[in-house]
Protein 1
Amino acid sequence: MILRRQTRKIHVGNVAVGGGSPISVQSMTNTDTRDVDSTLAQIERLQDAGCEIVRVAVLDQDAALAIAAIREQICIPLIADIHFDHRLAVAAMENGAQGIRINPGNLGGPEKLARVVAAAKTHKVPIRVGVNSGSIEKDLLKKHGYPTPENPTALIESALRNVRLLEKQGFEEIKISIKSSDTLTTISGYQQLSRLTDYPLHLGVTEAGGLIAGTVKSSVALGILLHQGIGDTFRISLTRDPVEEIRVGFELLRSLKIRERGPELISCPTCGRTQIDLFSIAEEVERYVQTMEKPIKVAVMGCVVNGPGEAKEADIGLAGGNGVGIIFKKGKLYKKVKEDVLLETFLAELKKLEETK
Ligand code: SF4
């Protein structure tokens, strides 16, 4: 049982973050935000995968304007990611952004920040103070050194300094992220930060890498933190299609038994007993279950000798034999079919289960 750290609750559109709300899974588009059609197409795929909050980069006024057209056609809250230019932050909110991610210290001074805060108050938009190892102020680096697992102070001080800039303007609808590309610095940084503030925390490892390295780094860092009750929302950053970030995110929550979405797929690694092309069958089944919503357990096993027994908790599974395959339910034989129709028969059974269960 994970005991979650008590944090304040804020709202990004209709999604509550912090204060015991479900831990939300976010992603960020990698399209040109000004290209409304491409951005919408990507957000629709993200929504289908379960994305709950989406962020878009706002690099100029045209991108800020595009937010209005994008917002009209999506169901999840949209956050504008802005650097340096306070006018873009204001324009993004005027055009319907439901959250902004900024670094208050780099917007050009208190007056410009005040305009951003005024717009955030008017439009009821929360602000994420997002600090990265690479964006820490020079004086803090000089004082505390570059963040390391043993000493992540500069990262924390930078975040809290930026939070104070907002608080000075009477603004507290805040969440905080302190991202590092180093797994251990991420862990120790968020652990320390969580003892110093009760604002909700957005977790992430930045520049984590491709599918395998990025998944492992993010899962280790975020897995440890979430297990300690730290973190209210997160993004898994991958150098990949952002839809993969959402899939990894929900698998992470599932493995910690925090949240479930869609079926869990169990598949064996294969061994010398395997007599069918299990890899391609597993790939097809994986593709299919990603379209399903019911939280059932599905098994794809290499042999009839051990498969059903090894996967007896699965609601439904298949196991390969010599020219045949069996479909089993809860570890018990349900149907025996020829190998060449095993996949299609199994997918039809999954469809039935999705419709009836
Ligand atoms: S289920 Fe069968 S084929 Fe797969 S790893 Fe276990 S023994 Fe090997």
Protein 2
Amino acid sequence: MHELSLIASVFDVLEENARAHGAARVTKVVLQVGRMSGVVPDLLESAFDTYKQGTLAEGARLEIVDVPVRLCCSDCGGEAAREDSDFSCAACGSRRVEIVAGRELVVERIELETDGA
Ligand SMILES: [Zn+2]
């Protein structure tokens, strides 16, 4: 499953961050998921729940931020958010567009908790 290997790399980031901050627990994880990332949010959530067992993030909540597709036009330089099926420039109608957002899967924020010792 695609989502499981993505979650594995997310956990590498979590564990690295928790260690760097001397945290005992991860309480919340916010992930940016682009609409064109090919990731199914439901599967990502269940992969997260499976993977977190026995880790620092066992009690963590996962929040998924939906990132819309943004296109940048090579002809007029315009940039705009577009629906998934329409890959043309909103300003001039050119099809020479580049996808500048919507493919990402990034850790936006991690909330950590220390034991305070
Ligand atoms: Zn254009």
Protein 3
Amino acid sequence: MRMRKKRHGNERLLALSSLLYPNASETWENPIEVFGNDNPLKLEVGCGKGDFITALSERDTEFNYVALERVSDVAVCAVEKYAKHRGLGALGANGGWQTPDGRLFKNGDAWDMPLELRGNVRFIVGEANDVVTRMPDNSLAGIIANFSDPWSRKCTYEKRRLTHPAYLENYKRVLTTDGLFSFKTDDETLFDYTVEMLPSCGFEIAFLTRDLHASERAANNIITEYERNFMEKGINIKMLEAKPVK
Ligand SMILES: C[S@@+](CC[C@H](N)C(=O)[O-])C[C@H]1O[C@@H](n2cnc3c(N)ncnc32)[C@H](O)[C@@H]1O
């Protein structure tokens, strides 16, 4: 489904640019420095409109998170959702970001938010491997990929899958020894492909279910935007977790 272009999308992202990961297109020396604490870092690739990262970051507060989305009009929804959920304001009736104390950031103005308001998530508009390539070895406690595009129809697109070896090898490098790769999908072909690729890219599958909502993980599961749609259609959700073998 193609999204209609967001009005003032870039301006809206700029207003909340304090919630974007700074200098993400450079080499990351110390990835957690920007959070002002020592909590381990997890990455969500393809975060979509941000339901999952907003809920996860509120539930598992002992981690920092980077949420990565390559389409900026989708990323702006995620950033605004997170900000609104944290009580940082809302879109103003006539555009701009309106803070709870009545300030309005629009026309390219950026809110320089105090660190304590920013919480434990920073967003990046970018391509997954471009960003992961810049991260140091052994720097992530987890990588999460939920309902990534299956690219099933034409096998020439296989390399775009977020579980293609070109991605998995990079994930392995940046995950710590105890780190986990977590993956959910509705798509049988993509799931089978991922199950096949993981061991050949140096991962060991630690958990696997082909019916997440009937499994012991259901109670702890955070439902994503796409997951809700697939559930309504009665499609079983597949999920796995894999550890890098180091
Ligand atoms: C099918 S949506 C799923 C969104 C969300 N994770 C969910 O479960 O509702 C996949 C998202 O991943 C993003 N995406 C796909 N390939 C990507 C890549 N290589 N790097 C960053 N984001 C990507 C897409 O733009 C899209 O927003």
